[in-house]
Structures are given as C-alpha cells and as structure tokens.
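Service request form, structural biology core

Requester: graduate student, group of Dr. S.
Request type: structure prediction, single chain
Budget code: on file
Notes: please return the result as structure tokens.

Sequence provided:
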Amino acid sequence: MKNRLSLSLLFCLTIHLGCTAGTKELDQPFLQSELIFPLEHWHNHGSCIVECPNGDLLVCWYRGSGERTADDVAVLGSRKRKGQRQWSAPFLMADTPGYPDTNPAMFIDPQKRLWLIWPTILDNNWESALLKYRISSDYQKPGVPRWNSGDILHVTPRTNFQTLVSAALDALAANPPPAMKRAEFDEWIKKDRARLPVVLSCRLGWMTRVHPFVLDGKRLIVPLYSDGFDFCLMAITDDWGKAWFTSDPLVSIANSQPSLVRKKDGTLVAYMRDDGPPPQRVPMSESKDRGVTWSPVVDSDRVDTGAGVEVIVLKSGRWLLVNNDLEEGRHRLAVTLSDDEGLTWKWKRYIEQDSPDDVKTGAGSYHYPSVTQAKDGSIHVSYSFHQTKRETKPDASGKPANESIKHARFNEAWVMECNRR
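Core staff response, request fulfilled:
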C-alpha cells in the first residue's frame, strides 16, 4: 500500500513519467511524452494524429520556412509502429510545388481508409486557400501512405449564405462587444460585408484544422473556418466525397477552427478558437439536425488564449478538451475532463506548463493540439512545440533549432488524479 501511495504522489508531482503497456499499468495514472523529431530551424506546425487499425500511430503536420507566404511549405508525416519507442524519420505526405500546403487534417473512415485533407494557398494569403483531399487503403506499412485517389473539395456555400451572414452581422452590429474598439469593430463588419457579394471570396479561403467528424458511420462532416470571414462552416458529404454541401455559417466575432462532439441525445456541439477581443473564451454552438443548422455562437466558460482547441468524447462517456487555458500566451497546455457533457469541467492537468521564471525570461509555446483515443483506452495528443523565445543550439544548418512536433500519451486516471481546477 505504501508503495502504491508513493507512486501516486510521484505521478502528481511530475508529468514526464513512463509506464509499461500492460493492462494493469494502464489503470494507473501515467503521462509519457517525447519529441517526434529533434528540434530544428524549420517551422513545424498544425499537427493531426490518428491511430491506425493495426495499432500504429500516424501524425502529419506542415513544415517549411514559414506559413502562407512561404512556397516551400509541405505536409509531412511520421509513424510510430505499434510496440516501438521511436517515431520514424519524417516523410512527405503532400506537396504542391511552388505553393504552401498547410493545416492538414486526417481521419480513418468506417471502411478503414485513411483520409488526408488540407488547403493549398494559391496567392500567399489565407483567403486563397483551396481544399484538397487524398484517400489511402494502403497506409499501414512503414513509410508514406500509398494514395488511391484524391480530389478538390469545392466549398460552395448554400444559396442562403449571404442572407444568413448579413442577418448575423446586423445582429452583431446592434450589440458590439464592449471590449472591442468601435472603429475596429466597424472595420470588421465592413470587411465581411464587402466579401459577401464576391463569389470567389465565398468559395475560397476555407481551411481545415481538427479531425473531421463521422456521424453514425454514414455522414462525414469536415469542420472549416475562414480567416477572410473570421467565422466557421461545415462541409458535409453523405456519399464519401462524391457530392458535398455546406452547413449554415457559424458567425460571431472572429471564431475559427471548430471541433465537434456529440451529446447522448444526438445534439452536435462545436467548440471553437476565439480570435476576438478579450476576455477570450472558447466559443460554442449546437446543431440538432446533424450539422446543417447551428444555434447562435456564444462564449463558454473555458478560458482560451486565442489558439487551437480540440474536444473528443472518450469511451467512458466523459468529454476531454485540450487547449491553452490562458488569457495571454501559449506557455501551458491543459487537458480538462467533463462528466456532464460540458456543463462543468471537474478535472484538469497540464501536459506542458512553464514556470513563472521561464515566462519572465522567455516562455515556450505549446499549442494547436490534436487528440485521439486509442483502442487500449490511452489518450494521444500531438501539438506544436516551439522554443522560439529561448536561446537554443543550432541544427546542421547553423540556424537556431527551436521547433518540433511533440507527442504525449496519458490516461483518464492521470487527468483525474489530482483534481486540479
């Protein structure tokens, strides 16, 4: 008993602990984490993680000398074979020569096919994003997935898109946020109104970030957002990509990157990134018709720094949210659990948390989490691991090596153990 209590206390005091993979050990609290590849000078960002049917883990992200303005940006991947400790060397997943390829998202459909969806940036502005996708039935071997097919995901907003957006903007204009300067708010409204009549502006610029959502094994919902409009939209297909249609828009002051969960009564809930004025809180909206129409976007009580969030429903029925729960900065990454479908979030632990002294001298940045639960019940999160505000050693190029993608593996028991709020 003393040994067990000591071990439990040790797990509460540290976050970088390993454990063996046996069934009994999985019941004990644990957190393991490692860099997928060594720190390097290239910009590495926007990861997505999935577990393959054979138990392999697959992660993708984008890498290059910048983001939308850098034409060398491509989508890379890495694989961790089941039972192995090391991730493979990064390999190329998608590249449009001469264009930035960014923000990849992956999922495995009910036919056990791997999908990769990502935007290619046509003119070095986010507003020119063109969505593409690839499908593979041969992806569980070492190395690059063998792509069987691919296409453009044309986003064609519904015929009432302009009417709905205009009405939402009218409602927002009648009740501007008190924390936002009036001139800034008016400019935001003016920008969206100017884009609405332009067909190309409505059809380009939609981007992925989190996992697509499979509903009842039949409907695929791809959550999208636009940096041009600063709001969200869902791309939906009921025939696995032969035909696509869109949801009504989810309009508020600068929401983006929606992540979906489903309540037991069938209601879909979207949690989003808040890029609007302070205080920033995770925005949310609900759909009761399988993702087509959505309730007005409101703020939840979840603090967010204006960075990516992702939420999933665990096998236990609890909801798990990963985000930067900060008013400012991205120097800690929180995992939060709810046992009442998001009404309250009773348990919290930190995958990453810089000390106050580190924050003063130059904090790290741990953000854009992607989360999935494996068949064995363990939870996996990949995220951007950036040390750009700290002095780091150079890589082979002679430039400071300060960016990678990191992977963390833990269980619900670890999150619930200390019951931190």
